[in-house]
């Protein structure tokens, strides 16, 4: 390559002798403090961080066309010599034009640049140039390159004509600028800590880290670029698996509690239920109870769609813990949900004279004091609550079992501090109604054993689901009106326009006013959103549960924790804005009673993928099937969508690349077997860095 870029003249050299990954970006040539401030917005403060600022994609400009072959309407790469270059006056003062002409042995083509006067300084007639940009016809019908990217040189340039890195940018920091600065930083790459043990790298046939970074920033060929991405992706998945395996080893080695399985107690619990357990509830309960009986701490996830009856299984586990003389807690992400679990447990445990207590944010001071005393002394065996459970002054006498509902809604620190209250490792049971495809299980829950309930209790009706476009609204409102006149109730969920409860609250408020005054003036409506004080929320919810409200207009906070069997309508405004998992959660709020229930997905013009998502909800009923469909619709590697499932975010790795997951898992097992105490500093360091990213306990 023969590019005379301005910065190519000074790679390495004595001036950079002290440059290292920890050096500030300003240690690089041509990086001013102002650049540094802007780079900080991209997360790049040090040279090492700049090297880790990876391209979003690469623009493949390798295919050359000769000038005679240029076609209008598409971006193309040409190589030639500048034969003319001049400014062209315009009447518009804000617009400067530079006009030129480039020739090769097949012909000549005009070029025009807008607002790039500096080109007059950089380029001269006679210079070899690479150009990439769209060809269009000018007024006289001749082809012209319009505002092409240009670089002096021939062959393959840094900015034109190769696999050109395109970066996440910010104001004043363009991809072109980044390419040049990163090129200056690349000599430092060999000094970066390489987290992959040498043995693993060799066994997996991966390129060294420095080489991978070099090829990602400035690829020499598609093959080398692919090898680079493979290496970086492998690192992510390897470290993820290593973290999970290591956590598992540590857990198995730690002191836990054994809560013996008592067959009589289990039978009595089942006999006292007002229904028969489904076979999957029985199997899940069996797995949980067997696991609790082992001396090591249980770490298990109970996964089941809304309404599959997970709480009963948790209640049975708590019953067994109390029998063995331990205390148990159940923690839920919202007060509504905590109250509901509390009600369920009260009922299920009453036959055994176990009285659970409830501790939430709104619990009064006196009562709170009394509950804390009871827990500390060990008089009270079961505590249900929200985050209020993990406040510092909550202590236990003999905590043996922690149940956490919708565990992905809690941070690791919160789950950990619950565990720490035991002074040892209590048994831990997480519950989630957000199923993930089986294939992803190892990735997401590497350190959790899994119990699954797929079937719903018998006799449950299927919720009818319909997509309602703008033209069908009036009809849908008539339909709702009719159901409500027959005594039913319903929800109207308003979309989270942005990731802000304040904005969501506003849109719900507006919709509430509209429905109340214009659409359903004769019905009883109430409004629920996260900005309301807890007491008011509870009050309005209670009114709805008691049947004193016909329609509850809410933000997505009603996602969990509402059990009102008489509610048979679920209207979701702007349904296309929600993901499949969340829509399915909403729908799980209805269909709990004897009457036919309907979920109406209101949309205003979904795009094709959104339409496919909504249709999946119309045809499918099972959260597991929906999760698989969701995965297929997103295609691999959509990190935003994955986060909804509680999946970790990775830099490069594709969590859905199952063959690579398997490879990474096997390699992590080997590495850990070879170095169980993590003596290799690189491995240890990587693990701790990763723990902060992935939140492993
Ligand atoms: P989940 O937490 O999995 O969404 P719950 O545990 O709240 O489900 O159960 C939903 C409802 O189903 C509750 O009213 C519960 O009493 C009831 N239920 C649970 N198991 C059964 C069963 N085997 N047969 C009939 N009803 C059940
Ligand atoms: Mg539940």
Compose a concise summary of this entry.
It contains 23 helices and 21 strands.
Could you characterize the architecture of this molecule?
- This protein has 4 domains: 1-56 and 167-192, DNA polymerase, domain 1, CATH 1.10.150; 58-164, Nucleic acid-binding proteins (OB fold (Dihydrolipoamide Acetyltransferase, E2P), Beta Barrel), CATH 2.40.50; 263-293 and 309-432, P-loop containing nucleotide triphosphate hydrolases (Rossmann fold); 464-620, P-loop containing nucleotide triphosphate hydrolases (Rossmann fold).
- 39% of the residues lie in helices and 17% in strands.
- The protein has a 7-stranded parallel sheet with strand order 11-12-10-13-14-9-15, with helices on both faces. A 6-stranded parallel sheet has the order 16-21-20-17-19-18, sandwiched between helices.
- Strand 18 (525-528), helix 17 and strand 19 (551-554) form a beta-alpha-beta unit.
- The radius of gyration is 31 Å and the shape is globular.
- The protein binds adenosine-5'-diphosphate and magnesium ion.
- The site of adenosine-5'-diphosphate (ADP) has 15 residues, from helix 10.
- Under the CATH scheme, which architecture of the largest domain would be assigned? 3-Layer(aba) Sandwich
How is the largest sheet built, in terms of strand order?
11-12-10-13-14-9-15
CATH topology of the largest domain: Rossmann fold
- Segments where pLDDT lies below 50 for 5+ residues? 1-16, 636-646
The gyration radius over C-alpha positions equals: 31 Å
Q: How much β-strand is present in the residues?
A: 15-25%
Biggest sheet statistics: 7 strands, parallel
Number of domains: 4
Helix/strand class: alpha/beta
* CATH H level, superfamily name of the largest domain: P-loop containing nucleotide triphosphate hydrolases
How many beta-strand elements? 21
Helix content: 25-40%
- List the total number of helices: 23
- Principal-axes geometry comes out as globular
Q: What hetero molecules are in the model?
A: adenosine-5'-diphosphate, magnesium ion
């Amino acid at each position: 390559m023969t590019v005379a870029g301005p910065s190519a003249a000074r790679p390495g050299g004595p001036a950079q002798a002290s440059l290292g990954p920890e050096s500030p970006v300003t240690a690089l040539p041509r990086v001013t403090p102002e650049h540094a401030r802007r780079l900080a917005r991209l997360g790049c403060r040090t040279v090492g961080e700049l090297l880790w600022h990876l391209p979003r994609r690469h623009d493949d400009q390798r295919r050359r066309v000769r000038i005679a072959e240029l076609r209008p309407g598409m971006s193309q790469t040409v190589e030639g010599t500048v034969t003319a270059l001049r400014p062209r006056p315009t009447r518009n003062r804000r617009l400067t034009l530079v006009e030129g002409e480039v020739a090769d042995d097949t012909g000549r083509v005009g070029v025009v640049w807008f607002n790039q006067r500096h080109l007059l300084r950089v380029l001269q007639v006679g210079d070899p140039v690479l150009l990439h940009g769209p060809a269009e016809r000018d007024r006289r019908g001749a082809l012209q390159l319009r505002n092409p990217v240009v670089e002096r040189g021939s062959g393959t340039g840094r900015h034109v004509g190769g696999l050109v890195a395109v970066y996440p940018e910010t104001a004043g920091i363009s991809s072109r600028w980044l390419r040049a600065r990163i090129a200056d930083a690349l000599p430092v790459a060999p000094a970066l800590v390489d987290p992959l043990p040498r043995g693993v790298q060799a066994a997996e046939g991966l390129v060294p880290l420095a080489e991978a970074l070099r090829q990602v920033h400035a690829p020499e060929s598609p093959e080398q670029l692919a090898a680079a991405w493979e290496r970086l992706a492998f690192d992510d998945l390897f470290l993820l698996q290593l973290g999970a395996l290591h956590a598992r080893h540590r857990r198995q080695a730690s002191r836990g509690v054994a809560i013996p399985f008592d067959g009589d107690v289990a039978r009595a619990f089942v006999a006292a239920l007002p229904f028969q357990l489904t076979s999957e509830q029985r199997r899940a309960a069996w797995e949980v109870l067997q696991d609790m009986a082992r001396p090591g701490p249980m770490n298990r996830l109970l996964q089941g769609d809304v309404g599959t009856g997970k709480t009963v299984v948790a209640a049975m586990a708590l019953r067994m813990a109390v029998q063995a003389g331990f205390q148990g807690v159940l923690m839920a992400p919202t007060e509504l949900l905590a109250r509901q679990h509390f009600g369920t447990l009260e009922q299920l445990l009453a036959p055994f004279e176990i009285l659970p207590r409830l501790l939430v944010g709104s619990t009064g001071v006196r009562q709170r004091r009394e509950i804390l005393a009871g827990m500390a002394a060990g008089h009270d065996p079961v505590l249900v609550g929200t985050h209020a459970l993990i406040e510092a002054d909550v202590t236990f006498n003999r905590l043996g079992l922690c149940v956490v509902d919708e565990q992905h809604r809690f941070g690791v620190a919160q789950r950990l501090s619950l565990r720490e209250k035991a002074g040892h490792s209590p048994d831990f049971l997480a519950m989630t109604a957000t199923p993930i495809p089986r294939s992803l299980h190892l990735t997401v829950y590497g350190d959790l054993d899994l119990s699954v309930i797929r079937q719903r209790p018998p006799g449950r009706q299927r919720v009818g689901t319909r997509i309602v476009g703008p033209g069908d609204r009036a009809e849908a409102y008539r339909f709702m009106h009719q159901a409500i006149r027959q005594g039913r109730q319903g929800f109207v969920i308003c979309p989270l326009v942005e990731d802000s409860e304040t904005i969501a609250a506003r849109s719900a408020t507006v919709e509430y006013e509209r429905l109340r005054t214009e659409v359903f003036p004769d019905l009883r409506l109430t409004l629920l959103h996260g900005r309301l004080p807890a007491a008011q929320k509870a009050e309005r919810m209670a009114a709805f549960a008691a049947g004193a409200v016909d329609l509850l207009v809410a933000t997505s906070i009603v996602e969990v924790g509402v059990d009102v069997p008489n509610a048979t309508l679920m209207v979701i405004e702007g349904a296309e804005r929600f993901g499949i998992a969340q829509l399915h959660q909403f729908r799980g709020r209805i269909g709990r009673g004897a009457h036919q229930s309907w979920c109406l997905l209101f949309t205003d013009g979904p795009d094709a993928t959104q339409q496919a998502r909504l249709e999946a909800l119309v045809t499918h009923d099972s959260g597991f099937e929906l999760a698989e469909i969701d995965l297929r619709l997103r295609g691999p590697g959509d990190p935003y969508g994955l986060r909804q499932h509680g999946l970790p975010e990775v830099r490069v790795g594709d969590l859905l690349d199952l063959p690579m997951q398997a490879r990474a898992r096997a390699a992590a097992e080997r590495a850990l077997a070879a170095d169980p105490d993590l003596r290799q500093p690189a491995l240890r360091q990587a693990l701790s860095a990763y723990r902060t990213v992935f939140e492993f306990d």
